[in-house]
Design a protein that fits this description.
alpha+beta; five-stranded antiparallel sheet; 7 strands; 155 residues; two-stranded antiparallel sheet; single chain; Glycoprotein, Type 4 Pilin
């Protein structure tokens, strides 16, 4: 913004030129186009990390269940194992749920827990953990874990 003196001696306050405004709009657009995808990637990663934490808690539940019942698949009365309600979805707080947590498979001596993405996380691939604490993330969303996906790390 500039102040201009008119020929009659009066001061006129000039505004921003159209060119200046267009440059500012272009800069903001460029910054937004770079920042927004990065922001979405961070949100996806944080949701996945939260699901991993809930899977770890569910694995601890399964270990406590085994300690009490000497097996993973059922209790001493013969009732099949079921995760507590607070361990069946991620995140555990009141936010939009991004993953369903399930006991994918269990026998007397083994189990596999799986977090299946839903809502805004769909397409991110499932996450799993076993009774040996072997971890996997289907990062290519193929429906199966390849040798390179036997980890929770980003590939």
């Amino acid at each position: 913004m500039s102040r201009v003196k008119s020929p009659s001696g009066q001061r006129k306050i000039g505004g921003f030129s159209l060119m200046e405004l267009m440059i500012v709009v272009a800069i903001v657009g460029i910054l937004g186009s770079i920042a927004y995808p990065s922001y979405l990637n961070q949100v996806t990663q944080s949701r996945r990390t939260d699901a991993q934490a809930v899977l770890m808690e569910a694995a601890q539940f399964m270990e406590r269940f085994y300690t009490e019942n000497n097996r993973y698949d059922q209790d001493t009365a013969g009732t099949a194992v079921a995760l507590p309600a607070q361990l069946q979805e991620s995140p555990r707080d009141a936010g939009t749920k991004s993953y369903d947590i399930t006991v994918q498979a269990s026998t007397a001596s083994t189990y596999t827990l799986q977090a299946t993405p839903k809502n805004g996380q769909t397409g991110d691939g499932f996450i799993q953990i076993t009774n040996t604490f072997a971890k996997g993330w289907d990062s290519d969303n193929s429906g199966a874990l390849s040798a390179a996906e036997q980890t929770w790390s980003q590939h």
